[in-house]
Amino acid sequence: MNPKIEKLIKLFAKLPRVGARGGQRIALALLQDKTGRGTALANAIVDAVENIAPCPCCGVLTDRGIGTCEFCRDASRQNGQLCVVRDLSDVWTLEKSSVFHGRYHIIGGLLSGASGVLPQDLNISTLPSRINDEKITEVIFALPNTVEGKTTQHYVMSVIGDTANVNFTELASGVPLGGDLDYIDDGTLSLAFGGRKSL
Amino acid sequence: MNPKIEKLIKLFAKLPRVGARGGQRIALALLQDKTGRGTALANAIVDAVENIAPCPCCGVLTDRGIGTCEFCRDASRQNGQLCVVRDLSDVWTLEKSSVFHGRYHIIGGLLSGASGVLPQDLNISTLPSRINDEKITEVIFALPNTVEGKTTQHYVMSVIGDTANVNFTELASGVPLGGDLDYIDDGTLSLAFGGRKSL
After folding, report:
1. How many angstroms separate the CA atoms of A100 and A77, rounded?
2. Interface contact A48-B25, CB threshold 8 A
3. Angle, nearest 10°, between helix axes B37-51 and A37-51?
4. Which of A160, B22, B41, B188 would bridge B18 by S-S if both were Cys, CB 3.0 to 4.6 A apart?
5. Inter-axis angle of helices A88-97 and B19-32, to 10 degrees?
6. CATH fold for the domain made of B68-170
7. Could you tell me which residues are beta bridge partners of residue A11?
């Protein structure tokens, strides 16, 4: 195979959820395209990679030149609520559902012995001062409902500690909407039973 | 969402088999990467898009500067066999299986009333002269085993016509290796029965 095409396929194949066959399809589509999609994509990648950086306040990726991100600039979002999430895709998911209209804080990972993620790898050192400066009254943890998510949540709570008069909350656990009990795992079922509501 | 990121996601999402969620994952991975994968990918795209073009002889994508492709340059492949395929990914599939060691001819599509693909859209006008020049004795059709593939095959045969003393062959139809009769469609089963071999 031509080395230029082979290199392109390899780079595409390493992207999330693409793989070897997907990389071939994508490379072929770009090379056979006559509308300049390949060049447009290359330009968009360079433009984004060079000009996008994490917001120094909350960690949301934003234009490097402007300083803080659209959430931190939006004064209407300063409602005392701060939602702690793992990464930007969680922010996008929450924004799409329109359930939350406060500020975000991206910690950038979960503590994990297996993957070697340590406290200093997480974006949490500025959290106590943020809570004071932005008069946060409620910290909502929207981390994955896994052992690692819960471990990280407890660690973040200990870092914030008693620095402020702040309530900690976490998302409810239970049976998902449309969830059939047949297909629910025991852990979820146990949490749903433990958290059952009176009617 | 940041417009630069949004644009990047949209361009990725339009690539084959990626889609909206895949585009998000890929854009995030590139933006959060610290090893320069984004820049490397952008450079590889530009390098390939600008320097790769179809081989003027057979249609295989190759370096624009060199002229003909690696298959057409390879004298050991001039064995009188010419394999007619739809596109480059079919060439890669055949190469991977090592079942064929002759020349290829990519026609670049299949005749289709529904998609509006007409004979002049196919790379077949040079086929008769190729067959003469390269002393082809067997034209092997490895087109998809569909109505459109068979229609195209018959059209290509009529174009080559009596220009040369050439044998036409096509890949065998039948039950795939490991194929369970329970999961085989009626059309394949009927072809497999019609083409049964004596033992």
Report:
1. 9
2. no
3. 160
4. B22
5. 140
6. Dna Topoisomerase Vi A Subunit; Chain: A, domain 2 (3.40.1360)
7. none
Taking an 8 Å cut-off on Cβ atoms, the answer to whether A45 and B24 are in contact is no
Closest Cβ opposite residue B4 in set A8, A39, A47: A47
Residue A25: C-alpha distances to residues A10, A20, B17, B99 (Å): 12, 9, 8, 22
Which one of B12, B15, B68, B98 would you mutate to disrupt binding with A, by most A Cβ within 10 Å of its Cβ?
A: B15
Q: Alpha-carbon distance A18 to B16, whole Å?
A: 10
pLDDT exceeds cutoff 90 at B177:
no
User: CA A101, CA B117: separation in Å to the nearest integer?
Assistant: 51
Average pLDDT over chain A, rounded to an integer: 90
Q: What are phi and psi of B82, to 5 degrees?
A: -130, 120
Q: Which of residues 9-48 of A touch B (CB under 8 A)?
A: 11-12, 14-18, 22, 24-32, 37-48
Q: Do B11 and A70 touch (CB under 8 A)?
A: no
Q: Distance of CA A155 to CAs A81, A130, A143, A145, B32, Å? A: 19, 17, 12, 15, 24
| Residue (of A86, A156, A149) closest to A124 by Cα position | A156
**Domain limits of chain A?**
3-53, 68-170
Residue type, A193: F
What is the DSSP code (8-state) at residue B14? T
Q: CB–CB of B37 and A11 under 8 A?
A: yes
The pLDDT assigned to B83 comes to 94
Confidence of residue A77 (pLDDT cuts 50, 70, 90): very high
Match domain B3-53 to its CATH number in 3.30.70.60, 1.10.530.10, 3.30.559.10, 1.10.8.420: 1.10.8.420
Two domains, one topology: B3-53 and B68-170:
no
Which residues 113-142 of A are in CB contact (within 8 Å) with B?
none
ipTM passes above 0.95 = no
Residue found under tokens 């009769």: B181
**The tokens of A6 are what?**
């082979």
Q: By C-alpha distance, which of A145, A140, A172, A136 is closest to A156?
A: A140
- Among chain B residues, the shortest Cα distance to A40 is held by B11
Sign of dihedral through CA atoms A118, A123, A125, A131?
A: negative
> What are the distances in angstroms from CA A143 to CA A116, A149, A155?
18, 5, 12
